[in-house]
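Thread: "does anyone have the structure for this chain?"

Original post by V.I.:
We have the sequence but no experimental structure in hand. Need at least a predicted one for the grant figures.
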Amino acid sequence: MSPSAEFSDPRLVAVYDTVNSYSPDAQPGFYRQLAADVQATTIVDFGCGTGLITRDLAGCGFRMIGVDPAPAMLRVARNGNFGKRVRWIEGGATDIGSPAADLAIMTGHVAQFFLTDPSWSEALHALHGALRPGGWLAFESRNPADRDWERWTRDNRRTVVDPGAGTIECWSEVHDVTAGVVSCATHRLFVVTGEEVVSDFRLRFRSEAELADSLATAGFSIERTYGDWDRRPLGATTREIIVVATRG
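Reply from O.Q.:
Generated one for you, tokens below.
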């Protein structure tokens, strides 16, 4: 996945949950309801980061496996609420093994960090192997038709307040858009100290058709798609492509 300093720089990891907090009725609520709907018992959260959603689901009684390649992120995850209820794996998709999970999820737009088709295919095949027959896979990817990256500018900044670091101003700037890959930089300005930390990253924007083809090749069948966390239908310019698929 992404080598961005956002996942390794101690200054950024320490404030990651504040900067990337979720509205309760967005990703956390969606995946919690989905897990209940499919009657999942064991869930793999691939690319779990600091485990915000992993630990939320663990607190709801699901048997959770959190997987991420970033040691610094997993240190936060292990020490968070319900962190001791989760089996944490430091590594990539091929390190998951075959736990015969009922549901696998990729949250936080993790799917977009797989820039090449081979790396994305490897991840999907590994998740297929981690699920029981008939198990479920769910993830989200920003809809390229919405052209979200055009709103990532210095003028479109937001401010958050971290309990430890104080006020932080956050914004992104786009450097290049080529063949569906958007190259950007995130800026974190720590107002108290005046320090600005810049982290480069790249994201792949796949269309609904590209996602469908890659899933079919990996042995999945799409059951439902949504355009946002309230489960509205996927449309030409809805912000998300949220995919719910089953393992053949």
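V.I.: this helps a lot. The helical segments are 10-14, 16-19, 27-37, 52-59, 71-79, 117-130, 208-217.
O.Q.: and The longest strand covers residues 166-178.
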